[in-house]
Amino acid sequence: MNNESQRLAHQTMAFVLAGGRGSRLYELTDRRAKPAMYFGGKSRIIDFPLSNAVNSGIRRIGVATQYKAHSLIRHLQRGWSFFRAERNESLDILPASQQMNDENWYKGTADAVAQNRDIIEGYAPKYIVILAGDHIYKQDYSLMIKHHVDSGADVTVGCIEVPRMEASAFGVMAVDTEDRILEFVEKPKDPPAMPNDPDHALASMGIYVFETEYLFRIMDECAADPDYGHDFGGDVIPRIVKNGLAVAHPFSRSCVRTDNEDGSYWRDVGTVDAFWQANIDLTDFDPDLDLYDTEWPIWTYSELTPPAKFIHNEEGRRGHAVSSMVSGGCIISGSQLDRCFLFTGVRTHSYSELKGVVAMPYVEINRKARLTNVVIDRGVTIPTGLVVGEDPELDAKRFRRTDNGICLITQPMIDKLDL
Hints:
Layout: H1 3-10, E1 12-17, E2 38-39, E3 43-44, H2 47-55, E4 60-65, H3 70-79, E5 90-95, H4 109-114, H5 117-123, E6 127-132, E7 136-137, H6 141-151, E8 155-163, E9 171-175, E10 181-186, E11 200-211, H7 212-223, H8 232-243, E12 246-250, E13 266-267, H9 272-281, E14 309-311, E15 313-314, E16 317-318, E17 320-322, E18 325-326, E19 331-333, E20 336-338, E21 341-342, E22 347-348, E23 353-359, E24 364-365, E25 370-376, E26 381-382, E27 387-388, H10 392-398, E28 400-401, E29 407-409, H11 411-415
Parallel strand pairs: 1-4, 1-6, 4-5, 8-12, 14-19, 17-20, 18-21, 19-22, 20-23, 21-23, 22-24, 23-25, 24-26, 25-27, 25-29
Antiparallel strand pairs: 2-3, 6-11, 7-13, 8-11, 9-10, 9-11, 15-16, 28-29
Helix pairs in contact: 1-6
Domain Glucose-1-phosphate adenylyltransferase/Bifunctional protein GlmU-like C-terminal hexapeptide: 306-409
Pathway: Glycan biosynthesis; glycogen biosynthesis
GO molecular function: ATP binding; glucose-1-phosphate adenylyltransferase activity
């Protein structure tokens, strides 16, 4: 980070949109918002954009919460309470229902900012970066802010390159060779291709940089439109594309990588399959996301736990793990783990066999269980002898089984079993 980028970051406030449920995660978000989902052993998804902001030099942060916010707010209070007002630092938690009006819930992404306008203006940041709170990636926002200033843009939109026909799930940009956005369309059936690359499209990451004064001015203009949908992607950005200067910022220009990382890592873990795959990928010999990067740490709430323990060394009852990650507080008692990811405090008992298991905190797996390709919600107790992953029809009757064969297991599902 050079001095100019650092100076710009200090003039910037990050506003994180963290109110979404993530309905495609089904029961995993029955009790928590998607940004509060566990990831990578000890982190939550929200920790990635927040860590990016802090590591980029941004010290003013607001987090807008809405759906099932308690778990998220508790995590922020425990893990992100190190900001000091006397150093001009702040982290504001902004629940939707705090404003006194007839409709307390945020009507859309832009409305979340509008309802907190007085708080933002109280800090008087020159720039504001709007962030989605539910993606996994490492990015130096200061480089994107500098690009915004150098280009003279009214808005700069973070974007990733995706195969063109996969882009229909995103907001997609048509750009010219100078990165100017010519068109911004939400979830198009026929996404526009990148210049000189007909097979790829530029998809929005849900990251926007504005001058704060300009943002509120353009939002006031949008609010006068009777068809205003209170959304950045659906309303604010298209208006700027039409009437102002909108510039695309490819993620590759500010992605943070170590020598062990190839390409630009960005994941939306918004489905059970994607969540399972992203966690299991971390067990690879050379994973695409380097969690051991001390130069760009992922800050989080770290529970005080003892180291993981492996016990018993008898034939058929040996506590061991292969190509797996095991978090603090875990006890692997006479169990076999193959390509598994165990979060904090998981206990596995003798003769159990686990393959492709992603177990969230404080799961207990009793004796002789055989589990293959499963995601287990926090605090679930797996009964003695339970077998999952070997009979697709039976699995689909008892648990939520995806088309790719990943089974999601929650405690209510276990409680309904006739064992």
